[in-house]
Amino acid sequence: MSAAIDSIGLVTARWWPEVGGVETHARQLASWLATRGVRVEVLCMDADPERAAFETHDGRDGAVSVRRVAYRYQDHETLVDLGKNEQMEAAALQWAEEVKVDLLHIHHLTGWGHGLMTTLAPCAPIVLTLHDYWTICPRGQLWTADDEVCSGPSPERCAPCLRATWPHLFAEGEDASEQVSALSRCAAEAFKAASVLLAPSAPAMQTLEAAGVPAERLRAFSLGVECSGLAEEVERLRDAAPRRGERVIGVLGAVQPTKGVLELARAVVESELPGLRLRVHGPRLPFHGDSSYVEALETLAAESPVVELCGPYSPEQLPEVLASLDAVAAPALWEEGFGLSVREASAVGLPVLVSDAGGLPELVRRDGAVGVIARRSDPDGLIGALRWMDATDCFGVIPESERPKLVDVDEMCEELAGVYEAVLAAHDSHASSSAAADTSQE
Q1: Which residues form the domain of 374?
Q2: Comparing C-alpha atoms, which of 152, 168, 6, 196 is closest to residue 82?
Q3: What pTM value is reported for the model?
Q4: Residues 35, 182: one domain?
Q5: Phi, psi (degrees; rounded to nearest 5) at 369
Q6: Which of 12, 143, 265, 379 is the one with CA 20 to 30 A from 196?
Q7: DSSP structure string for 192-227
Q8: How many domains does the chain divide into?
Q9: CA atoms within 13 A on the CB side of 352
Q10: What is the pLDDT of residues 334-352, one digit of tens each?
Q11: Same-domain status, 185 and 149
């Protein structure tokens, strides 16, 4: 990497030790940049109930400086408050003016609001990664309150859906479409403030374009997976573990209606395949205040010995989790942008079962992972996929020579470094042109 960037600010909703796909990716990026001499400054939210709202405190994560702003979404009174939060913007602006970085890379705007983009734009050029669809859908996943895939945002479609999700954000008798339109205008301004908008896969980029995100600023990039080190540790744990007499398919990540975990659990039970178990590793929390999906899964697990709910795991426990499995599934129902868990599984030699949603099928169709693609929202298709894996003996460890070649973290970071350098070069060129124009007018 060239010396074009000396300092960078990363903005996220959360930071380690809170974990998730976005947090894992951003932390890998921060570590890679820091080891190459880049000063990395992180700004994130802190949900600690012991801290006063908007209180800030600084710390470090290795070589990375981290500022946390105490925030628990406590001040939302209208829908537009999701897009404009002056107190959070003020905290972010103070941070940006203090750390004075060359470039800002924002990884999520939830909590901060769309207005963060225009607030921080004068401080440094901005790269915004759209890890999901929150900027165009406040529910985050283009997934309706009726538990269906949304065909795209519009005031007519969004108004009843968002009113059903957050009735307290709308006055009785209010025309909800007016607030939806105002929030959409906030998003449009946010997109204008970005030098580059990044999508985690080509299918995700297509979904964003279809939803109205400006195509001229969008580009897909390759999210990376920690391949070699993860594979080595998993192999060591496998060698030390006793041989299992059962086949275990795992799901990794939060349990929510968009992920299709309950549907897979029902398919495992109904398939009646001897020795097949489903193990779910991930938090079970309400989805926009609704716990019925999680409760249905918990009821099924209580009634069926072939479904096991293990709860969340830390990043340090990932090798142990993967070493205990014979396959990993991501039966998503929404337009999943990437699918980190099944790519990590492929990196350590596990077969995968994925739905045909978003960026998931790329893993099998393009990258060559061993596994099967099932139609989403198709119970019979899931059962058929499980039976195909059983009939073809598609469980267990795949030889290293047959594993897909995935983009690793180094390759991902090199690609992002190229994006940063291009943004800075364009910014410097524009600044030089503006300065020359100002001089000629004097």
Answers
A1: 228-402
A2: 168
A3: 0.91
A4: yes
A5: -65, 150
A6: 143
A7: HH-SEEEESSHHHHHHHHHTT--GGGEEE----B--
A8: 2
A9: 31
A10: 999 999 999 999 999 999 9
A11: yes
